[in-house]
Amino acid sequence: MKAFAALKQRLLEVDDLQGAANVLRWDQATYMPPGGAPARGRQTAALARLAHERLVDAETGHLLDGAAKETASLPFDSDEASLVRVARRSWEQAVRIPAPLVSEFHEHTAASYQAWTEARPQSDFEAVRPTLERTLELSRRMAECFPGYDHIADPLIDFFDYGTKAADVKRLFADLRARLVPLVRAIASRPLADDACLHQPAPEAEQLAFGLEVIRDFGYDFHRGRQDKTPHPFMTKFSLGDVRITTRVRENEFTDSFYSTLHECGHALYEQGINLSYEGTPMATGASSGVHESQSRLWENQVGRSHGFWEHYHPRLERAFPRQMQGVSVDTIYRAVNRVQRSLIRTEADEVTYNLHVMLRFGLELDLLEGKLAVKDLARAWRERFEADFGIPVPDDRRGVLQDVHWFSGPIGGVFQGYTLGNILSAQFHGCAVKAHPGIPDDVRRGEFGVLRGWLRENVHRHGAKFTASELVERVTGGELSIEPYLDYLWGKYRPLYGLREEERQGAGVA
Ligand code: ZN
What we know:
Number of helices: 21
Structural class: mainly alpha
Bound molecules: zinc ion
Distance between the termini: 57 Å
Low-confidence stretches: none
CATH architecture of the largest domain: Orthogonal Bundle
Number of strands: 3
Number of domains: 2
Largest sheet: 3 strands, mixed
């Protein structure tokens, strides 16, 4: 196993460089004074370049060949054979894209991100139009490095949800949309839930402390993690022993900090649960964007927006915010955190309408990549499609096409589908966990999460990226990704909440 050992050593160096770059990015987002920005951009780019060079080096290819021979007789799911398989995949993806295109893309996205931060507050789409045209061209060129694709978005999707095809996502989204629209319509015909209790001014320190108390109960390991504040919440990892999360706090918006904390904790529990022997290898990460998002959404929604959860935490919330929570019952909180309303901003959307936001973006991406839609017509297309889907006009591009950072910090295509795949999978995984341990809902009612976390660790977390998403889903659920458990979850929850009737579920099937 000489080649295998040398391969592992080389992958560890690549991982160390990437980990160091992550520390710099985390620092930039949390504590760095603004004056550090120019040098920090250079420093992270230098580390990324070194990591890339080390990975695509011809020697890595030789070591992969040697290690493949050494592990050929081992079973598919052995750690050694899996490591060679996973490492080869990331190596092949990395070597296909010529280094000049990688740097061109990095330089362009740095400028494009800057342009977006200035154009968004001004609602000035024209200011970023040329930038975005170039992003589209570069995204296409990246995809062209992988000839033989069925759809030009497929190679881009492979970076985030490996093995998922644009055609599969299109079909899946069409089915889901046809079944979601009747639910959205039915809820929209009922009175809006009152969520005034969530908009009482509450001091930052108390909000943060309450979120931390809950994720400590969830099992987030503070010995291997910490939470800091950033404008946009995220999770990052420097090693399996250091998995950090961030949040932001708004005084009048309790759910902003609270649910972003639960969400990022879900991502972090995944990373903290990975088999420690995978440290420093490409297996020490999530299986895909979709699977990662399934973990964050599971803790945020299936757990954190359940009635049982609030039965347990309502008295604690009252103690933490006695003035704000005066006379607010468990049911009031439960209804408030599950208020459904068609709204402009994806990141603030409820779990019912959220996927329609994702579908809108995914559809536009495909049209752009296919050449059916020109960037100059993107803002208009956004407004038209949004109004058709949501029934509300888009007042400006700031709250329309310019709201998300994704197209200004990465390629056009490949990212958005992961959010909806995650929602769908969260219901499948949660359903399997409850089937294996029917006491889980009662545990949640008592604020006990060990059995659920243990099941997720055993079945999902510990494997890291050893299996692809579809291999993992097959192992865990015994079948394929399916929208039925997700729709059952949504109807099961919102039917009683909004007094919906069964006929409304069976009703209109077209969007
Ligand atoms: Zn997430």
